[in-house]
Structure formats: C-alpha cells, structure tokens
Write a structure and sequence with these properties.
Length: 333
C-alpha cells in the first residue's frame, strides 16, 4: 500500500529527513511511500537507479555496526584514537556513582544522562551537589519508564562553546554554534515583548517555549515576564541548546580551525560512519591549541539547523549534497 509523499512528509518530526524528502521531490526524484506490514519504506528512483529508506534513516553507507548508540562505547573508541572526551564514569545506582566519582576524582559541575539516550532525554546539566546528583539520577532513570535503562553516565561538565559539526564522506560540510534559548535585553522592553518579537521570526515548532522549565528559570532568578533586562544583557532560559526549544544556530564553518575539522572527520570514521553529527565543544574554535571535547556523535542527526532558514549566516544545502552523492547526475534547480 502506498500513501501520499506530501502528507507523509508533513507528519515527519525528524528535521533532517523531512528536508531530505522535500528536496528529493523538488529535484524531480520519483518518491514513493510504501507501507509494509508494521513498518514504512521510502522508495527513491532517478534515471533508472532505485534505493530504499527505512523509516527516517538516510540511505548512507556504514562500514561497521553503529558504535554510537551506547555512549560509553563511543567514548572508548574515540579515546583510543587520542580524541578528547569528557572525564566520566558509568554507574547503575547513586551509591555506585558516588564511589566511582571519588575514585576518579571527578569535579563538579557534572552531567548525568542515559548511556543510550537521544535528543537530551533524561539529561541533567550543571549538577553541583550530591543532593542534585540524586535528583538527576532519578530523572535519568525515569525518562525511559517503558524501556528502563540500568546504567547511566556521569561526566564532568566541560564549560565552552558548543558546536554541531556535520561530517560527510571525509569532509566537514558545516559547523554551527548552538546558542541556548535566551533573550538579549534592551533596557526598555519587558521580557514578554522581546520573546514575542523573537518568536515572530521563527518557524513553527522552533519558538521559545514558556513551559515549566522556562517558568522555574524566571522564578529562580526573581524575574517575571514584565521584567526589563539591562541593555545588552543575555538571559538564558534553559541549559539545553535544542532548536525546538528556541535555541539558535550560527554558521561557523569557515572559522573552525582545520585541525579541529580533521579531528571531527577522524571521529566519524573511528565509529564506522561516513556521515554523522558531532557535538563538539571548544574554548576557541579558531585556535588549534584550544581545549576541546567531543561529547556525542549522532549517526542520523537533525541537520536542518545547518540549512536556511534556521541557520544564521550562509548555511549549506545539506539535502542536496547527500542526494547528489546518491544520484551523481542530479542537478540543482
């Protein structure tokens, strides 16, 4: 049974795969959605070449099995190549975590996250005490209630700018700086007005959310929506940098030092991928001697943050690059 590709694309929540399918249709690639038993296949056909995508996975080659699902495995692989990752431990309980933290001499602030989670689900940043650690572990374990995780990761929090680096076929396609949801004050307008203006320029689903985290952040800082921030003061609403929560993406590809680009390519190849998104932290992305870490690698990243209209700056048409690699005779329209 087949269904409308337009309707199917509208319902996709994966930003990268949604962009990929829209571009395929735009460029004249015959695209068909096929329901098979309890799953979905996407058939792509262009000039006699046919291939299939399963669910929201891009049809790209992997040399080995996925070494990125388990974050502890990823860390072990990267460290064997001399690539920096955060200092941390894997544990299954609060008591075990406290014991290993002492043995490894980890220092606060810390991060707690599932060993095999995604999209920052069950993740807590900026843990500064044992009591906060206890709460974070409970949150992490409760995040996957229908599929409980027995292990979690505790890592030192590396304080630096965060970037998403997209690597494809041995090259860094794009590097963007991720900036958390926040507002810069002008000394005149209340927060409510500044947020409304910011949200007007965003796509649906990418606005600053005024949820419980947002409200608690205001409360903890003794602010309300009527508060006026001093001019040029940046106020951050949450610790995560998700675009879907109002985070920003700023083009930094040309500023990234070639040494860091080489490290990112090496990291993708080390875990057996030809394509992936890297969560890269650096004190100064332009300086090869700057401290850095790779936090995680995503084998099927949401790459719309690298494309217009979400990215601030030039951006890159990631979808076309991927489709061109699959169908070499494809031409941009």
């Amino acid at each position: 049974m087949s269904i409308s590709i337009v309707k199917y694309t509208e319902d996709i929540h994966h930003g990268g795969f949604k962009s990929f399918l829209k571009k395929a249709v735009l460029l004249g690639i015959k695209t068909e959605v096929i329901k098979v038993s309890h799953t979905t296949l996407i058939k792509l056909e262009y000039q006699g070449k046919v291939l299939f995508c399963h669910k929201t996975n891009l049809p790209l080659f992997r040399r080995m099995g996925n070494l990125t699902k388990n974050k502890a495995v990823t860390k072990t692989v990267l460290e064997s190549f001399g690539i920096h990752t955060p200092r941390g431990i894997t544990a299954g309980s609060l008591n075990e975590a406290k014991k290993l933290i002492r043995e490894k001499s980890l220092t606060y602030p810390l991060i707690c996250k599932p060993v095999d989670g995604s999209l920052a689900k069950g993740m807590t940043w900026d843990i500064r005490s044992v009591s906060e650690l206890k709460e974070a572990i409970a949150f992490t374990k409760g995040a996957y209630i229908h599929n409980p995780r027995s292990k979690f990761l505790i890592e030192e929090m590396f304080i630096a700018s965060e970037y998403r680096v997209l690597v494809f076929n041995g090259k860094v396609l794009s590097a963007v700086q991720k900036i958390p949801a926040g507002i810069i004050g002008n000394g005149i307008s209340p927060l409510s007005e500044l947020i409304a203006r910011f949200n007007e320029g965003r796509l649906p689903g990418f606005i600053i959310k005024q949820d419980a985290i947002f409200k608690n952040t205001l409360k903890d800082n003794k602010l309300t929506l009527d508060s006026i921030l001093p001019k040029d003061t940046f106020f951050q609403f949450r610790n995560n940098l998700n675009m879907s929560d109002g985070g920003r993406s700023v083009e930094r590809t040309t500023k990234m030092h070639p040494v860091f680009k080489k490290i990112c390519v090496q990291a993708i190849e080390a875990v057996g991928l030809t394509y992936g998104g890297i969560d890269f932290f650096a004190k100064d992305i332009t300086n090869e001697k700057s401290d850095y870490i790779i936090l995680e690698i995503n084998p099927n990243p949401f790459y719309n943050m690298h494309e217009k209209p979400l990215v601030e700056g030039k951006g890159i048409d990631v979808s076309f690059h991927i489709l061109k690699s699959i169908f070499p005779t494809l031409k941009e329209k």
